[in-house]
Task: structure prediction
Amino acid sequence: METKTLLITGFMPFGGDAVNPSWEAVKALPEQIGAYRLEKRLLPVEYGRAAALAIEAAEAVRADAILCVGLAAGRIAVTPEAIGINMRDARIADNAGFAPKGEPIDPNGPAAYFSTLPVRKMTEAIEKAGIPAAVSYTAGTYVCNDLLYTLLHRFHASETRAAFIHVPHTTNALPLSGLTCALCAAIGAI
Result:
């Protein structure tokens, strides 16, 4: 079996939290899952900068696939995102103090891009592992969506595929081991 490279990212803490379960779950993953060798990166919670660093890393490691993971504190399931939209609209400022209101990510870009990894198959694999999961049709308008849209825009019409998964907060839904298990299942389904 040919080894492929998967860039997988998580985020730094934000909004007053001391840790971000997205990065904690990514850090806990093994170095290889199925055919994929994992390249893990920690991203800042900053519009534009997170995406620029992810693109730089993806190009440096020649990623075949990119899977970004972020926190959706109010959710109770692991939710692969089906779509990224061309919108920045912050409820709170990012970690650099930027709080856009109703701005496009790319004024010349399309309204949206669909994820290019098999989101439904990934969701089914997570559920089969016994973890609550659902396909999400809104990645919001915060840095997570900014990252997803920008990656899909950059790698549109290329062989590099990308998707985003939101995880719930470990304090109100799943333990860290459950989040890590969910990510293993999702990667196994790619």
